[in-house]
Amino acid sequence: MKRLLLPLLAALALPTAVNADIRKIPEALRQSFSKDTLILETKVGETIEIKKSTVEIINSADQSYLISTAKRSIKEYYRKSREYLRETNQENLIEKERIKEKRRIKAGIGYIEEFSPKSELHILSFSFIPIFTDLNGKKSVLQKEYVECINPVLPIGIIDMWEYVYQRKLNYLDSKYVDFVCEKYAKFKR
User: Fold this and answer.
1) pTM of this prediction?
2) How far apart are CA 71 and CA 106, in angstroms?
3) What residues contact residue 146 under an 8 Å CB cut-off, 6+ apart?
């Protein structure tokens, strides 16, 4: 009887290891800000801290950067188009492609200059290292996260231009911290 009872008591009394994937953190219920730390609390009481000392601006972009990048992107598209026309012996269409390219650049730049805020940043990109605290108070440093914060005053058309230039959706990294980090650390003029 002792042989069966001792292992049973030991199994119940000793803590067991939990194989939890801490990268799949439930959505935060509450957020609080201290002077230098963003604290997110989950439904069950776990917390994620993002300390200001780990937050770095890794890139910023404004209207002039969007214009130069859009020009480059459009020129590259039409360069590939002209190469294709040469390869398929449709050289009579190359001049039409050059005219389309000039029109598209002029229209794109005109749109950007008219509708985007000239003196403001459009996008801020951050990296940071979150710290996870479980229910037992054990802290774990999570892997570095990346977030792109979009200026909230940008019109949808300008955001579409950025997505065309980047050839992907903004915030494609789908970090669960985007809204919180942008609210705390991205300082755009309002």
Assistant:
1) 0.65
2) 9
3) 58, 125, 126, 127, 173, 175
